[in-house]
Hints:
This protein folds into two domains: 20-168, no CATH class; 169-316. Helices cover 66% and strands 2% of the residues. The protein has nine helices and two strands. It has a two-stranded antiparallel ribbon. Helix 7 (218-246) packs antiparallel against helix 8 (251-273). The longest helix has 29 residues, at 218-246. The two termini are 39 Å apart. The chain crosses the membrane at residues 28-49, 86-104, 111-137, 143-161, 173-198, 227-245, 252-272, 278-300. Keywords: Cell membrane, Disulfide bond, Heme biosynthesis, Iron, Membrane, Metal-binding, Oxidoreductase, Transmembrane, Transmembrane helix. This is Cytochrome oxidase assembly protein. Pfam families: COX15-CtaA.
Amino acid sequence: MSSAPTASTTAPGPTAPAAALPSRFLRVVAWVSFVLNTVIIGTGGAVRLTGSGLGCPNWPLCAPGSLVPTEELTYHSLIEFGNRTISGPLLVSAILVLLLTWRIRAARRDLFAISAVVLGLVVLQALIGGVIVWLHLNANLVGIHYVISLTLVCITAAYLTRMYEAGGPRERAVPKGFAILAHITTLAMAVTVLFGVLTTGSGPHSGDATIQRDGIDAVLMSHIHAWPGYIAFALTLALLVWAAARRLRPLRWIAALMGALVVQIAIGIYQARTGLPPLAVGVHMVLAALTAAAMTVVVLRLKRPATASAAPVAVG
């Protein structure tokens, strides 16, 4: 006579050995990396919006023969140098995350790959920042600089999300149609961010009072930027309703994403109607990164570790 299955045969899977789990120190450093990548968007925005882009006219030195601002330089130098200063701790945190993740790379190849990408982008970002100074705030490079920063916020958010879940194979945790809709929403948000970068690049905040941007109508670009934003909002609303009705795994993060989008749209409308005040533009830039990070978490929550649940995935 066969016996009833034991707890060990019905359990989702074996617990990962302690050596394969992220240490508490790694978790702290990973959070520091995420926060610093977010903060540097704010300080970088302050550099641009206060016209301090050439406050330190040299790179990697601030002024000829001096790593730090000299008495002859203005407060713009302090703003630019403050932004540069954050790059140091940001690089250190990226290196620490990579080294600490190296210890568990056999079990968490996903985390190791993410940490390697983050470090590579941080180094690339610093080099591009130097080239931007050398080329006197070239508009195209300034836009690329922001996009890389936003990408870093998303990737470090992905690291945090995966860090709190088991490694190994993953399985879809939502209906297929829901997953497709989420990816379409991601595309709409990416287009929104792209046009947002172009809109800011064509606006009055060039980063230095002596530099003027020509060739693109800022008013026209603001309208073009708004439409994919409204589409992303409508798609996110559809995701929220669907997730709430079915109690799907990404529900809480979709709700957070919706809240961020509402605030973003409100700030976008305000700044468009008030002549792009610097503070509103700066907040808009930081919130864009956090909104994209929330979208990243939503996408990652579409799947779960294959051992996380024995329940079948909904197909409706």
